Amino acid sequence: MKTLLLPLLTLPLAMLATLPVYQPVAAVAPVVVAAPEQTRDVRQVPAFTRLSLATSAELILVQGATQKVELVGNPDDLREIETAVKDGRLRIGLPEGRWKNWGGFKSPVKVYVTMPQIEALGVSGSGSIRAEQPLRAAALDLSVSGSGALRVPVTAERLQAHVSGSGSMRLSGNSPAADVHISGSGRIDASELKTNSCTAHISGSGNCRIGVAQTLDARISGSGSVYYTGSPRITSRISGSGRVTKV
């Protein structure tokens, strides 16, 4: 009887010896990254009718009765940004000769501006200006240089739009007369802008889209393109492989 029981007892022990032994693993505490410090800084500046953004910030623009300029971001970043008015133009940016891209700030910088009267808006560098409600003006001058962006609805008797470099504009609304200039690879999307007459000048590979009712004067040097909607009378002068196309 003993000889029969021994194999039955030793077999389970041998099997147990082959089982892996698990060691307790110490728990790893989750890494908590603190959110960047944010602060609001309201700037008191003289009256202005023209605005220039010269740093890598996002500017939200409102046309309203009470002028206001407010910056939101890391306090160290905000201390570096100047808001100075000269000859009716507010310049928002680092001191002349200094520059930072989006990665240069500790956290993204936003600027909130309210202007009663708007005559000109400009972006230089990689910043952006946008508005949600139509900007009203008798004459409005818009410009982008560098890789910046400008997105605004407008209601203006006369509109000038200039893009140099790889920047972009998106325009909507109404302007009986529009003058569009592109130098470089930039683009202007004014397909939602209604205008009676438009002059479009492109030098380089840029492109423009616009809605025109009566007259379109297109002048292209290079491989640029003018795309239009409507049935205007066309006058064109093209040097290179540029084209004027109805869409």
TrEMBL record:
Q: Boundaries of each Putative auto-transporter adhesin head GIN domain copy?
A: 47-232
The residue range of the signal peptide is 1-23
Keywords attached to this Swiss-Prot or TrEMBL record, sorted alphabetically, are:
Signal
Protein name according to UniProt: Putative auto-transporter adhesin head GIN domain-containing protein
Organism per entry: Solirubrum puertoriconensis
Species classification = Bacteria, Pseudomonadati, Bacteroidota, Cytophagia, Cytophagales
